[in-house]
């Protein structure tokens, strides 16, 4: 006897904490999946009702009642399809990361996540208790196992499914993006399918949540290990997949759309750009705003930030402000104006000379007899920060900072100056990656018959903060190709000073860069959140004490 299931993978963008709104979204998308695809089963992402990660909202005393009310609403809808929905489960004094199977107006089964991640950006052991039992049930004649996210990365839940005779495993996820995560997931699904002889459906959340971006890319794996990416990257989708059992391996799954080539062959630059666009768009809109303002300097960082903002929000919702001073070059003025006109954003020029003079006059007595130093450069940056925040307050547009990971790592940024803002698009993008993404953006535009989104003069000029006459970044820092390698090895790979030196870098240079990274933790703690692109971003990923006596290389 052959059994066939039409599964719809609900790769949707939810709002953390909006339990009522998320419940309504489940019902609306379920109705669409039933009407459009004649769905038998609709599978939603991990912690669907709260969205992921809810963090300390899980500790709020009213949460159990809200979850119970939402679950009751889902049951009372009595939809014709079976729902697989993730939610927190409060049970006998414990809190579980759970999923429930809802059909015929009731909960047929509930599974409690067994493997709780507690690394990188994950800290589920802070909140949840571990489940201990597998969950297998018959869905329309198909023996089906249920698992949640990290369960797939460990061997026990998959072995339980295989030993229980499952033909199909449904795995719901909230798996955030980083640069090589897609390939890691595909390799994992292939391995688990081969190990268990079980077909796997992998449904992932999509959308931005503070610094995390969930990239979707939902997948299916056949028992022979072949993996197909059926959900698009960085987009919502209701993806219908037919599962036939029993059947020869080549007939196990069929789907009308296959995104495998697009997903697996997209470049690093394309993925990072899409993540930045989605992260910014969702941060702005989910927080109730609709516009942004940023300082446009004629340099590469602000130029790429502007391009991302336009793609995320539309040109009408973006204001760029050039704030020249005595050291601002004519080239910077021309390039900033050219890009603003090319992208069609609102553009203003507000010189800071008089503002700087006012500060200098007020501080003249305090600074008497003291030589000029970085203080005067920082005042310039802080003048600009005051202007941007004033525009933000008056017009309700959130300020975007434009600093990159290289600068934030070594403290080449000014507190309450260029660090002022609500969101940092480039926070986890090294300077070398910023250049690479900028070139990619221009290549895409030119191939489409359009003008480059970033003037080539911006990309070709030597980077400079223009806070002093003739200033260049490499006057204060190692060349970015070396600096970024050292930062990556120390921050992202946790390599020791000696290991970095052994990799071919000069001892003095390594010790200086590592020292700068360590002593500037206090700045990073005061920096805005920004899009996570790597496996080790500053913020949730890397938690070092500000006050400490550790010396790298000892």
TrEMBL record:
One of its GO terms (biological process) is NAD+ biosynthetic process. GO terms for molecular function: ATP binding; glutaminase activity; NAD+ synthase (glutamine-hydrolyzing) activity; NAD+ synthase activity. Deamido-NAD(+) binds at residues 378, 407, 523. Coiled coil: none annotated. It catalyses: deamido-NAD(+) + L-glutamine + ATP + H2O = L-glutamate + AMP + diphosphate + NAD(+) + H(+). The active site is at 46 (proton acceptor), 113 (for glutaminase activity), 149 (nucleophile). It comes from the Bacteria. Pathway: Cofactor biosynthesis; NAD(+) biosynthesis; NAD(+) from deamido-NAD(+) (L-Gln route): step 1/1. Pfam families: CN_hydrolase, NAD_synthase. Its EC number is 6.3.5.1. ATP binds at residues 295-302, 402. One of its GO terms (cellular component) is cytoplasm. L-glutamine binds at residues 119, 175, 181. PANTHER family: GLUTAMINE-DEPENDENT NAD(+) SYNTHETASE, NH 3 /GLUTAMINE-DEPENDENT NAD + SYNTHETASE. NCBIfam families: nadE (TIGR00552), PRK13981.1 (NF010588). Catalyzes the ATP-dependent amidation of deamido-NAD to form NAD. Uses L-glutamine as a nitrogen source. In the C-terminal section; belongs to the NAD synthetase family. This is Glutamine-dependent NAD(+) synthetase. The lineage of its organism: Bacteria, Pseudomonadati, Pseudomonadota, Gammaproteobacteria, Pseudomonadales.
């Amino acid at each position: 006897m052959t059994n066939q299931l039409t599964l719809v993978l609900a790769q949707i963008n939810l709002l953390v904490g909006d339990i009522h709104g998320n419940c309504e979204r489940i019902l609306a998308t379920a109705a669409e999946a039933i009407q459009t695809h004649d769905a038998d089963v609709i599978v939603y992402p991990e912690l669907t009702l709260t969205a992921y990660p809810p963090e300390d909202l899980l500790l709020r005393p009213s949460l159990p009642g809200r979850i119970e009310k939402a679950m009751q609403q889902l049951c009372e809808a009595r939809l014709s399809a079976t729902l697989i929905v993730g939610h927190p489960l409060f049970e006998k004094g414990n809190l579980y990361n759970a999923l429930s199977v809802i059909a015929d107006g009731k909960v047929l089964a509930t599974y409690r996540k067994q493997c709780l991640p507690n690394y990188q950006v994950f800290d589920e052991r802070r909140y949840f208790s571990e489940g201990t039992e597998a969950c297998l049930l018959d869905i329309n004649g198909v023996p089906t196992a249920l698992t949640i996210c990290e369960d797939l990365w460990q061997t026990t839940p998959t072995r339980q499914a295989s030993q229980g005779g499952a033909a199909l495993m449904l795995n719901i996820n909230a798996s955030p993006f980083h640069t090589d995560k897609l390939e890691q997931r595909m390799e994992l699904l292939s391995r688990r399918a081969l190990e268990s002889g079980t077909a796997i459906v992998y449904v992932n959340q999509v959308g931005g949540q503070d610094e995390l971006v969930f990239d979707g890319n939902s997948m299916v794996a056949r028992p022979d290990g072949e993996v197909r990416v059926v959900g698009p990257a960085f987009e919502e989708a209701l993806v219908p997949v037919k599962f036939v059992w029993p059947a020869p391996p080549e007939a196990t799954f069929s789907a009308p759309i296959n995104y495998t080539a697009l997903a697996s062959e997209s470049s690093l630059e394309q993925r990072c750009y899409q993540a930045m666009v989605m992260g910014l768009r969702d941060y702005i809109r989910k927080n109730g705003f609709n516009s942004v303002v940023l300082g446009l300097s004629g340099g590469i960082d602000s130029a790429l930030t502007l391009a991302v903002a336009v793609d995320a929000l539309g040109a009408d919702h973006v204001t760029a402000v050039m704030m020249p001073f005595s050291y601002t070059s004519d080239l910077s003025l021309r390039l900033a104006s050219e890009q603003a006109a090319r992208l069609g954003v609102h553009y203003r020029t507000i010189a800071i000379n008089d503002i700087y003079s006012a500060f200098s006059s007020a501080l003249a007595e305090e600074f008497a007899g003291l030589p000029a130093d970085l203080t005067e450069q920082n005042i310039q940056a802080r003048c600009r920060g005051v202007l941007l925040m004033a525009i933000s307050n008056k017009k309700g547009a959130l300020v975007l900072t434009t600093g990159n990971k290289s600068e934030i790592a070594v403290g080449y940024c000014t507190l309450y100056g260029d660090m002022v803002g609500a969101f940092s698009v480039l926070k986890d993008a090294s300077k070398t990656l910023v250049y690479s993404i900028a070139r990619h953006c221009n290549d895409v535009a030119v191939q489409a018959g359009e003008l480059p989104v970033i003037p080539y003069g911006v990309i070709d000029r030597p980077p400079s903060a223009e806070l002093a006459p003739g200033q260049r970044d490499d006057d204060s820092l190692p060349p970015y190709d070396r600096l970024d390698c050292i930062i990556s090895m120390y921050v992202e790979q946790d390599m020791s000073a000696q290991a970095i030196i052994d990799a071919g870098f000069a001892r003095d240079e390594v010790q200086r860069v590592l020292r700068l990274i360590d002593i500037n933790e206090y700045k990073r703690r005061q920096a805005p959140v920004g899009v996570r692109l790597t496996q080790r971003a500053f913020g949730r990923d890397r938690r070092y004490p500000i006050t400490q006596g550790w010396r790298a290389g000892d």
